[in-house]
Amino acid sequence: MGVVTVGELKPSISGKRTFRPSSSTRHVAEWPISDVSSDLTIEVGAATFALHKFPLVSLSGKIRKLLLEAKDSKITRINIPALPGGPEAFEIAAKFCYGVSTEITISNVAMLRCAAHFLEMTEEFAEKNLETRTEVYLKETVLPNISNSISVLHHCETLLPISEEINLVSRIVNAIATNACKEQLTSGLSKLEHNFPAKPITRHGNRNTLRQVGKITHSA
User: What is the model's pTM?
Assistant: First the structure.
């Protein structure tokens, strides 16, 4: 029996993009071919994604709530407006839900962090969920580096107001300021050492110092 995973976005007849499963690769949940047909269509902006409920509700609290709050228990289509990052962000988040390897980069970490917050992909629903993965990347790769921080900060501009609501903007700004101060302090100390090099103390110098101290003590 074959198994499937989420494949690439393919254009549908209506011109919208549809997220279709592909039988050419394996999926960690081992979906049988007989169950390949989608049971949930999600609209994000102008894109349409034909997916499955189980992997999505397992990691996304937002999608779980939308399905639970729906009047029709057999709902097969939901719309997610105002998702930070739009279809691009949802595509990566959906692949993450299906266990497909996703790469977090300087270019997409802000988008994915905001999308993870919006979709409620937190530790409450799964260990090492998307929100946690993006946080690790931010702490290890972005915040310690001024150049990376500035680059991610620029990406935050298109993700307002959520990037501010989750304190991503303020954290990056504070990190840039802190790292800049550290660099200035290090540079200042380096110049100070260059202008006033430490002089080695010789044995002869020690004797002279002791004589001077003795004279001061004697006169006192």
Answer: 0.71
